[in-house]
Structure to design on (189 residues):
């Protein structure tokens, strides 16, 4: 017998960003553990509703996108725990195990000047001050205190990677609207 929480079906917003997944039930009162994909999961804490998609592998206890209203989210040791009025007990929380969590971009907290969400940097074209194309941002790595842009570019028909530290010393300008980044970086670095 399934103890699936009663969640309403909805459409995934066009600006939805995958921010984590539900790892497991936590305790007996319907709390669940969340594995965040980002080191600063502000969006998880800020959004009052999460959009869930079924796990990619394993049991699928629901189909399509459902809306999960969030009551409380808090850090707990090295993880995050959350509770929803739609998830009354442990069985209901277990039914959500593996579900992928999306948050609408509009629900992200506002960033300060010079701060960007990783999701906003992916796919931007990077050129240097001379206007030479360095590549397109395909990934970001958090290495200690700094973030590194991983660019993808082609040379002689092969796809190669180039890494640029995402720090003021090398990044002149980020233009989200224009989908470009200008870096103080040379092709042969």
């Amino acid at each position: 017998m399934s103890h699936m929480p009663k969640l309403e079906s909805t459409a995934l917003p066009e600006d939805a960003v995958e921010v984590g997944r539900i790892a497991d039930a936590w305790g007996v009162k319907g709390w669940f553990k969340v594995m965040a994909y980002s080191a600063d999961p502000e969006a998880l804490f800020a959004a009052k509703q999460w959009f869930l998609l079924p796990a990619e592998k394993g049991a699928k206890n629901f189909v399509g996108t459902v809306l999960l209203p969030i009551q409380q989210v808090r850090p707990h040791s090295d993880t995050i725990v959350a509770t929803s009025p739609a998830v009354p007990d442990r069985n209901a929380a277990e039914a959500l195990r593996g579900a992928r969590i999306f948050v609408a971009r509009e629900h992200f907290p506002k960033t300060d000047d010079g701060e960007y969400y990783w999701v906003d940097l992916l796919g931007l074209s990077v050129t240097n001050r001379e206007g030479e194309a360095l590549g397109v941002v395909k990934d970001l790595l958090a290495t200690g205190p700094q973030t590194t842009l991983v660019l993808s570019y082609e040379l002689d028909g092969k796809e190669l990677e180039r890494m640029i530290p995402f720090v003021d010393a090398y990044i002149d300008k980020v233009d989200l609207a224009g989908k470009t980044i200008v870096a103080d970086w040379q092709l042969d670095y």
